[in-house]
Amino acid sequence: MIELHEIEAARARIADVAVRTPLVRLHAAGVPDGTEVYLKLEALQPIGSFKTRGATNAVRLAPVQARGRGLVTASAGNMAQGVAWAARELGLSATIAVPEHAPQAKLSAIERLGGRIVKLPYDDWWQTIITGSIDGVDGLFVHPVQDEGVMAGNGTIGLEILDDLADPDAVVIPYGGGGLTVGIASAIRALKPDTKIYTAEPATGAALAAALPAGEPIDVEYSASFVDGAGSRRVLDSMWPRVRELVDDAFAVPIAEAAAAVRVLATRAHVVAEGAGALATAAALAGHAGAGKVVCIVSGGNINPAKLAEILHGGDV
To answer: What is the DSSP string of 21-46?
Structure first.
């Protein structure tokens, strides 16, 4: 767990950058009987995702000398924007390793913020996350997942949820590498330990959903989809001890259900969500999180406009 005092300190540290996003109730057909679904709208952050929080906190915590060589990270797109945003604020360079399937909407946003993009095949990109470095690139590597400062920044979402809804029965979090889950779950467990913590992954890369029943990380098949900000081949070994103690269950969401949740969020809540950002809502609508008050983290809204239009028109994904 991340200590509560570290999360509270992060909230003060990033208050001038991170938007205090709203928690709104979803009123839509398909919500299971006896369930109230609430949306934590992190897609409304300045860069369109929660990554503003963790990236800013981690960079501001780093010694000036360490970050003076520039910032480096590996990301499918959203952490890249968070690091590029923080770098621009400090007048630093930012170099980002992205997987080859990263959507153009995210790549364009990185470039607008002044980041330099290094495209890698998925396996090579995943290796940079494991090693925390990019071959031939110098600078402070801000790890998108396992950095303590990143997780503490992410945990500020949990504090805000409890400020707005004192008694959630469950919180559902999209799972990519685990940094968002550990951050939010640490805050919730410290303050409301009876609240269930669930995760949602695309069925095309549901590593945590496989690891929990196995009792250890195992390799799973992974295939790229429009849900580019979540899912992986394997739970990171460094994150496994943290997520194992914090997560009650993990759900694998079919890609078609993620697309349906994108449509629901757009048409009923008037919120643009990317694939990963819709996973938690899809899991709740499927009834996986049970009855009562269920909070779904809408983690980001950086989706290619053409893909959004295709989904809204009911096209195949």
So the answer is: --EEE---TTPPTTEEEEEEEGGGST
Coil, strand, or helix at residue 49?
A: strand
Summarize pLDDT for 110-119 with one digit per residue, the tens: 999 999 999 9
Which residue, 71, 271, 164, is CA-closest to 156? 164
Rounded CA-CA distance 297/317 in Å is 22
pTM above 0.85, yes or no: yes
The pLDDT of 29-41, averaged and rounded, is: 96
Expressed as residue numbers, the domain containing 64 is: 51-141
Q: How far apart are CA 282 and CA 220, in angstroms?
A: 21
Element of type H or E holding 200:
strand 196-202
Domain boundary among 119, 141, 163: 141
Query: Are 182 and 280 within one domain?
Result: yes
Domains: count for the chain: 2
Domain shared by 152 and 178, yes or no: yes
Question: Contact 149/58 with Cβ under 8 angstroms?
Answer: yes
- By DSSP bridging, strand 35-41 and strand 23-25 are antiparallel
Q: Which residue has the tokens 């909407």?
A: 105
Residues 18 and 36 in one domain: yes
